[in-house]
Design brief:
By secondary structure, the chain is an alpha/beta fold. The chain folds into two domains: 6-17 and 85-230, Rossmann fold, CATH 3.40.50; 19-84, DNA polymerase, domain 1 (Orthogonal Bundle). The protein has ten helices and six strands. Helix 1 packs across helix 4 and helix 3 packs across helix 4. The longest helix has 15 residues, at 67-81. It is globular.
Length: 243
């Protein structure tokens, strides 16, 4: 197997600890109808586009509101909750190490751009170091996860073949998407989700804390120089990159 040249990160549950915030917001909404939002439902929503997840939630819990109603209420709660998101253990250290080594790094998140901005509000210097950020509402993405579109776009924006990228995910839909794109996949699932739901990843880890670059399939000696030579020259940052 050839060494990886670039790394593509999912955001929620990988870089930022937002999953508990999703749970808090959703429980506030469904609780009004006497429903409980737990991992038996959330496990089938995590990582997917918001509209798909909302439709599943409304149907699974038999909510007397539409998916659009749910998303509207959730958006209001997100304005307060999402800016409080903290970094996941080891995430900042790993992405910084990759940046310092010169390894191209991207974010591929199903979140729409406005939600991405809320989540990263207090982490802008960190996220500014990513070479590419692709959000789920990018018009070039025809299908959301588990389709490979977002990962293929991230690789194209990085200028690296998908087969030379490693993706880091926490959700089954995300693992499916990255594998379908032809990437090597490392999964870091929430303990409540369970390792078996992401067992089809190439590697399953409990946390990113202490992960070495070699663990990602990167060549310790030549990853940076190889990545730089493999990348296509770009006139400007991709449209997914934050300003």
């Amino acid at each position: 197997m050839r060494h990886a040249l670039a790394v593509v990160f999912d955001m929620d549950g990988v870089l930022l600890d937002t999953e508990r915030l999703y749970t808090e917001a959703t429980q506030q909404i469904v609780g009004r109808f006497g429903k409980t939002f737990d991992w038996s439902v959330k496990g089938n929503m995590i990582g997917r586009p918001a509209a798909d997840s909302a439709r599943y939630l409304v149907e699974a819990l038999g909510l007397p509101i539409t998916a659009e109603d749910y998303l509207g209420e959730r958006e209001v709660l997100f304005r307060t909750l999402m800016p409080t998101a903290q970094a996941m253990p080891g995430a900042r250290e790993l992405s910084d190490a990759l940046h310092e080594r010169g390894v191209p790094v991207a974010v591929a998140t199903s979140s729409a751009r406005p939600v991405y901005e809320l989540k990263t509000l207090n982490h802008r210097p960190w996220f500014a170091r990513f070479d590419v950020v692709v959000t789920g509402d990018d018009p070039r993405i025809a299908r959301g996860k588990p389709a490979p579109d977002i990962y293929l776009l991230a690789a194209r924006e990085l200028g690296v073949e998908p087969a030379r990228c490693v993706a880091i995910e926490d959700a089954p839909a995300g693992v499916d998407a990255a594998r379908a794109a032809g990437m090597r996949v490392i999964a870091v699932p929430d303990p409540a989700l369970g390792r078996e739901r992401v067992a089809h990843a190439d590697m399953v880890l409990e946390t990113l804390a202490g992960v070495r670059l070699e663990d990602l399939g990167l060549d310790r000696g030549s990853a940076a120089s190889s990545a730089r030579s493999a990348r296509q020259p770009k006139a400007a940052r991709g449209p997914g990159h934050p300003s």
